[in-house]
Amino acid sequence: FEETALWGNYDPVPEKKKEIVCIDEDGKETALFTDEGYGDIYLLDGRFYMTEIKTEKEDGAVYNRERLYSVDMRGKNRIDYGNGSIFAIDKERHVIILKMAEDEGVRYYALDYKTGEKKLMLTDGEDNYFYYVGMYQDGWLFYEKSKKYDAEVFGLWAVSLEGEQKKIIAFTSAFNQRPNGYREGILNIKSDGERIYFIIGGYDGSAVVFQGGKLVSVKPDGTDYKAVETPGDIYYIGHDNGKAFVYFPYFAMPVADDVQE
After folding, report:
1. pLDDT interval class at 9 (50, 70, 90)
2. Cα–Cα distance for residue pair 22/165, rounded to 1 Å
3. pTM of whole model > 0.70?
């Protein structure tokens, strides 16, 4: 960097070597191997799952793309999975949910890290539908489904590891009838195991600012609908004495008579 620069870019550097080091309980460090990965490291069934940046040229332009791979405990027997990242891990079912960028679009796979079997779960853009994948839980991938060029109707759906798809709840929006401009959708999907929570709203303007919306919660089958208006898209779920609480940052406090600061 220039000595007089005000800002620094600390993105991963392609092809930069680094060591994977093991530290025992006595503090002794042992270098296991050297590679070019970066970011989060997952150790599952004796293999490291990591991401590296690879520089690729396409139509005269240069792109830095994430590539997902795994190696054994000594950095050997490498397996490449392609351009993408890890979306979720389910240790109970020994499954990794992969989010991969392919020619067909963004695809989500379930990879059994014990057997190596990989199953396709979802392809964004398939059959002229858009998918926003927000959460994985207990064998199900939860996502918003809306039709291209006709997003007046959109809904919360889920697909299982076995390929079963189910619609949980659907919504309509007058904003989404327009061909261009602001549109509403499902954002920030979460669950506490008993209910599913998500935001209905959208972003607009040159600063891409959240325009306000609703925090919605339903049971996993889409029943017992509850909603509260909120100016923000950030929230947190907690429990106290068996009762669920939803926490908001002060600037994103919802609008309701029974909401307390």
Report:
1. low
2. 42
3. yes
Question: What is the token pair recorded at 92?
Answer: 């109970």
C-alpha 10, offset from chain centre: 22
Predicted confidence (pLDDT) per residue in 131-187, tens digit? 899 999 999 999 999 876 666 788 999 999 999 999 999 998 877 766 677 888 999
The answer to whether the beta carbons of residues 223 and 201 sit under 8 Å apart is no
Query: Residue 212 and residue 165: Cα distance in Å, rounded?
Result: 30
HEC readout, the chain = CCCCCCCCCCCCCCCCCEEEEEECCCCCEEEEEEECEEEEEEEECCEEEEEEEEEEEECCEEEEEEEEEEEECCCCCCEEEEEEEEEEEECCCCEEEEEEEECCEEEEEEEECCCCCEEEEEECCHHHEEEEEEEEECCEEEEEEEECCEEEEEEEEEEECCCCEEEEEEEECCHHHCCCCCCCEEEEEEECCCCEEEEEEEEECCCCEEEEEEEEEECCCCCCCEEEEECCCCCEEEEECCEEEEECCHHHCCECCCCCC
What are the strands of the beta sheet with 47-58, ordered from one edge?
A: 37-44, 47-58, 61-72, 79-90, 95-102, 105-112, 118-123
At 100, phi and psi to the nearest 5? -120, 140
Residue 245, beta-bridge partner list: 238
Q: Do residues 68 and 81 lie in contact, with contact meaning Cβ atoms separated by under 8 Å?
A: yes
How buried is residue 151: exposed, middle or buried, by Cβ count under 10 Å (0-12/13-18/19+)?
Answer: buried
- Pairing of the two strands 226-230 and 236-240: unpaired
Asked if the model's pLDDT at residue 259 lies above 50, the reply is no
